[in-house]
Amino acid sequence: MTKIYPNAAAALEGLLFDGMTISAGGFGLCGVPERLIDAIVASGVGGLTVASNNAGIDGEGLGKLLRTRQIRKMISSYVGENKEFERQYLAGELEVEFCPQGTLAERMRAGGAGIPGFYTKTGVGTLVADGKETKEFDGETYVLERGIRSDLAIIKGWKADESGNLIFRKTARNFNHPAATSGKVCVAEVEEIVPVGSIDPDHVHLPSIYVKRIVLGAPYDKKIEFRTTRARETA
């Protein structure tokens, strides 16, 4: 049975439902599963809990799902470039579980590895640790963090073979790998699909066993999250 689907909507067919939890790869606007996000917006599914480093920016990435009010709760570490995220949170319209960046990545990885929880020093003595169990190891206090196991993982890869072995490109590797393993079902959009055997096994970042469905998302436009320029110097 082929893992390759003709478009993002087809790749998500039968997987979406109200109130589900989604793990999403990407960092800012880098390595974001744009086509899959667009398909989720079009589906109209709501009440979503989304675990992702951030929620994109206004109108881009996961910001599209915030704009349409399809997200009920975000589990994330950074919201600085998204004014709608900030507005919804301060207005009490969006539930937010802030999580240190490294802890969030490890929570996804742990969920994918079948580890229900782990102890970390990060966040001890701060609001991050409020309401969580703490424990002493060798005279140091650690806080218990739960692994994340989602109903669906949506990720962006650079290259995949037809069986689903994936390569991520440079910084797009970021949260895509842990997000992929944390989902009960992982759907990947990629820039290129090649025949089985075209990828050196030593170059595979994510083995095909984690990837259930693939969609070709290319071509993409390079989006810049925060453009900074200076005036051209005169001769």
TrEMBL record:
Could you tell me which Pfam families the record lists for this protein? CoA_trans (PF01144)
UniProt superkingdom: Bacteria
Q: Which GO terms describe its molecular function?
A: CoA-transferase activity
Which keywords does UniProt give here? Transferase
Q: Which Gene3D superfamilies match?
A: Glutaconate Coenzyme A-transferase (3.40.1080.10)
Keyword Transferase listed? The answer is: yes
Which PANTHER family does the annotation name? ACETATE COA-TRANSFERASE SUBUNIT ALPHA, KETOACID-COENZYME A TRANSFERASE
NCBIfam families associated with the record: pcaI_scoA_fam
Annotated protein name in UniProt: 3-oxoacid CoA-transferase subunit A
Species of origin:
Rhizorhabdus histidinilytica
